[in-house]
Design goal:
44% helix, alpha+beta, 10 helices, disordered N terminus, 259 residues, four-stranded antiparallel β-sheet
Length: 259
């Protein structure tokens, strides 16, 4: 998958952090501008620029997965994080959990099957079933977003699983199929966690190469499109990069980055 062509919906993540009062609107805009030009992960930029701590980022991300984390009284302060390398690429959470050896492939597949059959969020399912600790979830989410979170003893964290409530927004992924004279949308996935919906979108592009995808956010009667992907637009971006490489002998948009 070309990460330049298939961008994660970073603004949605940033707006979550603004809503938690961990970022200002100005800080978010500056970080998004840097993300667009550098290609680095947004979480990596936010922590490296000192806008928020790695633990604060992981805490908000964990809450999106239905798991609330907070240091227990008297627990030591979280050590300073170290940002990952600039070439750190986006990976779905399940991939990160397996890569970190927090889960086996079979455990992940069983959890995903339970999610498809019963609903709920992946982190919520894994923690409630004892397959993953709150500290491990936080570490994996930080890693997913390009930040290294110092390992924490589970005894130092208060971990509470919070089921989905009826008033939460829902994020739905649609495949857009172009027919003569109109567009047809087929729902592929939905979750109260937009991070999971984005993960599913990335994996779907890898496996099925669709013409277009959209993520819609529904909250009561309100609905908005928060992310979209177009194979033709992705191809155009890739072609532009190829032309640049042919002109300059290298791709100036990634000059200076490690391969």
């Amino acid at each position: 998958m070309e990460t330049a062509a298939l961008q994660f919906p970073w603004r949605q993540l940033g707006e979550l952090l603004v809503a938690e009062e961990l970022l200002t609107e100005d800080e978010l805009e500056q970080a998004l501008a840097e993300q667009a030009t550098s290609g680095r992960l947004l979480g990596q930029i936010l922590v490296a620029n000192g806008y928020l701590s790695a633990f604060s980022l992981a805490r908000v991300l964990s809450e999106q997965h239905g798991v609330q984390l907070s240091p227990k009284e008297g627990a030591p302060a979280t050590p300073a994080p170290v940002a990952s390398q600039p070439e750190h690429a986006w990976r779905p959470l399940g991939t990160v959990l397996v890569d970190l050896e927090f889960l086996t492939e079979s455990q992940l597949e069983r959890a995903l099957n339970a999610q498809r059959e019963e609903g709920g969020r992946l982190g919520e399912i894994l923690v409630s079933r004892g397959l993953l600790s709150g500290a491990e979830l936080a570490q994996a989410l930080a890693e997913q977003h390009g930040v290294e979170l110092a390992a924490q003893d589970e005894a130092e964290l208060e971990t509470v699983v919070r089921p989905i409530t009826a008033d939460e927004p829902v994020y739905k992924l649609f495949e857009v199929i172009f027919e003569p004279g109109y567009q047809r949308r087929t729902e592929l996935f939905e979750s109260a966690n937009f991070l999971e919906t984005a993960d599913y979108a990335f994996e779907f592009v890898d496996e099925h190469d669709p013409a277009a995808l959209e993520i819609h956010r529904t909250h009561g009667a309100a609905q908005e499109t928060v992310w979209n992907y177009s194979a033709s637009r992705a191809a155009a971006v890739n072609a532009e990069r190829k032309d640049l490489a042919q002109t300059f002998g290298f791709d100036p948009t990634i000059w200076g980055k490690k391969k």
